[in-house]
User: Fold this.
Amino acid sequence: MTQPVLSVRDLVVEIPTRAGVLRPVDKVSYDLAAGEILGVVGESGAGKSMTGNAVIGLLDRPARITGGEVILQGERIDTLSDARMRRIRGRRIGMIFQDPLTSLNPLLPIGAQLAETIAEHLPVGRAEARARAVRALEEVGIPAAAERVNSYPHEFSGGMRQRVVIALALCAEPVLVIADEPTTALDVSVQAQIIALLKRLCRERGTAVILVTHDMGVIAEAADRVAVMYAGRLAELGPVAEVLQRPRHPYTEGLVGSMPMAAAGRARLHQIPGAMPRLGQLPPGCAFHPRCRYARAECQRDPGPTRADCDGRAACWFPVGARA
Amino acid sequence: MSLVSVRGLTRVFDVSKPWLNRMIERLPKRILTAVSEVSFDIRAREVYALVGESGSGKSTIGKILVGLLPPSAGKVTIAGVDLSGGDRAAIDAVRSDIQMIFQDPYASLNPRWRVGDIIAEPVAARGGDTRGLAARLLQQVGLAAEDAQKFPHEFSGGQRQRIGVARALASEPKLIVCDEPTSALDVSVQAQVLNLMSDLKDEFGLTYLFISHDLTVVRHMADRIGVLYLGRLVEEADPASLFETPRHPYTQMLLAAAPRMDMIGREVAPPQGEIPDPINPPTGCAFHPRCPIAVARCSVDRPVLREVGISRVACHLAGGSGSGI
Assistant:
C-alpha cells in the first residue's frame, strides 16, 4: 500500500481547567490517502474542529496535544517547533475556514494576499508569483481574474470570497487541505458550486481533504469516507455509502435517522433522546450509552469500546446489524 | 376559509447613505425591494412554508405578518381582520392570536429574566391570568415545571428553543410564525424540536408559517410550499408536486443544488451565477439572467403567478405545450 498522506494515531488533546482535565479529542486515529476526501461529521462539541486544529498545530492554549502522533508524508509533525510548523502550514497543508471574511485580510487586495503566500512558500520571483495568483483565481472560477486581482475582499460576494479562500489554500500546491465548515455560511446554490469546485481541484491535483461539517448531505455528496465523532471520540469510520446507508454505530444510526429524508415522507423523525454530555461529565465506558437504545451493562465498563476492539468500523460493543 | 390572506404584499427599505453624504457625493437614493407583490393564502391548521435563499424576503414576510414591520404596499388579512385597516381594537385582538418562534434561541430569550416570566409574558402583558401557566407549558414542551425558576443560560440550545415554543404557545395563538426555528440546532436536536412542533400543531390546532432555507425540513413539515426568489413568489405547490415536478426553473435549480443524503457521490453540474443585487434587480423575470431556458420575453415582462396544474408558477414558459416543464 502506498504511504498515506496523513496518519493520525491515537491523538489526544487535553485542556487543563480548574475543574479537572477535559479531553475534547480522545484517541482519534485515521489515515488519509492522496486525493481522498475524508468527511468528519458530528454535532457541536463533538471535537471535529479541534481534531483538525490539532493536526495543523493551531490549538488555542491551554489546549494541547498530550498523546498520539500526527504523521504527514512519513514525517511526524505534532512535535515540531512553531517555526517549522509555520513552514508546513500554507505550503503542505492548506486551510479553508467557515467565514471567508475572517480568513482574508480586509486591507490587502486579494492578488497581493495570494502572491504573498506563493512567494513565501515557493521558489518564485514577485512577477511569477503575481502571474500564478491570477492563474489560481482563474482556476477557482473568478470571472475576469486578471482585473479582479486588485479588488479587496469586501468587493466580492460570499461565494466569490470563499473561492478566493480556496485559491489561497491551494496556491502553494499543498498535499492536504483542511476545510472546516467551508460552506456553512453560504446559500444552497453557492454551496453546490463550492463543493463541486473543491472536489474537482482536489481530484485533479491529488490533494487529500479533511472536510469538517455538520451537514450529512454535504458529506454524502463530497466525501469518499466519513468519520463520525461523538464526545471527542471516533464513533464510526468507513466508506461514505456504507456508513450512511448501513450505519453500525447506534449514534450514526440515530444521526442518519434524525435527518428529514425525502423517502420517509411525513413520518415522525427518529430522535436521539437527551443531549451530548459535557466534556467534564462524560459517563464511564461508551460515552453514548446513556442515550443508546441498545445499551447493556457492558457498555458502562471502562475503558469504552474503540474501533480496533470492535469490528474495525464502529466503536460499539454491539454494532447495529451484527446484533441478534 | 383561509386564516391568513396576503395580497400584493410589498416592502421596500431605504438603504441610502445619510442625507449629507448623498448631497456631497451626489449619490442617488438607494431603495431595496425586499418583498415584491407577494400574494398567498394560509388555510387554518395548515403548515405553509416559505423557502428561499438569503435575501429572498422570507423573513421580511414573517415580520410583516406578526406586525414587527409595516408593509409598504399590499394587504394582510388575518382571521378576517385587515392588519393595515383602521379598526384598532380588532387588530389588537387578532394580534394576540399570532406568535413567533425565532431562529436564534440565544438572542430571543432575555438573559436576565427567569424562564417562567419569559413564558408568561405574552399573557401578563395583556393582564391575563398567569398562575401555573409557565409550569404547564414547560411540561407540554418536554421540560420540567421546576425549570420556570431557572435562567436561560442554564439550558442547551435545543432546550432554549423549547422555551421559545412554550412562550409562543402561552397566549393560545392560532397562527405561529416560525422563522428558521431549527437552523441553529444540531440535527438530532432539530429532530426533537420538529417532532414537538408537529405534536403541538395537532394538539392545539395551530397554523404555522414555516420559514426556512432547508428544503428537507420544509418537505417534512409543510402542507404547502411557497418558493421565493429576490422577494418574489415564483412557485407555490404542495410538497409532493413541488419536489417531484418542480415547474419553475429556479425551483428546479434549487432542488438540484441541495445536498442530499441519499445521493452519495453524486456528480451534478452546479448552478450558474449568483443571486443578483436586490437594489437593482434584473428587469422582467428576476431569474432570467441565470435561467437555462430564458427567452427574449423573460427580460421584458415580469411573469405573474398563474395556475399550472395544481401549482401556481410565475414563469412565462411553465406548463406551455412542449416546453418540457
